[in-house]
Every structure is written in structure tokens, then in C-alpha cells.
Design brief:
single chain; mainly alpha; 56% helix
Length: 50
């Protein structure tokens, strides 16, 4: 559903970034997972510095 709503899709990615960095280290594995979510939601990863 979020894929059809750009604002919601961006919110999903931002939440993923927050969760990934919750331990103080947003490591490469976590970044890769969020990057894949970007592709799934048709959002450019560079928009989120991924």
C-alpha cells in the first residue's frame, strides 16, 4: 500500500533508518536492508544517503 503513496513510502524508509540506527551504529548490513526497501517502494536510495 505504501508504494502507491510516496509520503507513506518515505515514512517507512525513515522508520527503517531510525530502527537501524537505534543502537548508535547504522551498519552496512542495516543500510543494505533499508536500500532494498527503497527499491521495493520505488524510491531512490540516494534520497536517503544510502
Amino acid at each position: 500500500k505504501a508504494k502507491k503513496k510516496p509520503a507513506e513510502a518515505r515514512a517507512v524508509i525513515q522508520i527503517g533508518i531510525i530502527i537501524g540506527g537505534a543502537d548508535g551504529d547504522f551498519d552496512k548490513t542495516e543500510q543494505a536492508v533499508v536500500r532494498e526497501a527503497c527499491f521495493a517502494l520505488d524510491l531512490p536510495p540516494h534520497e536517503f544517503d544510502l
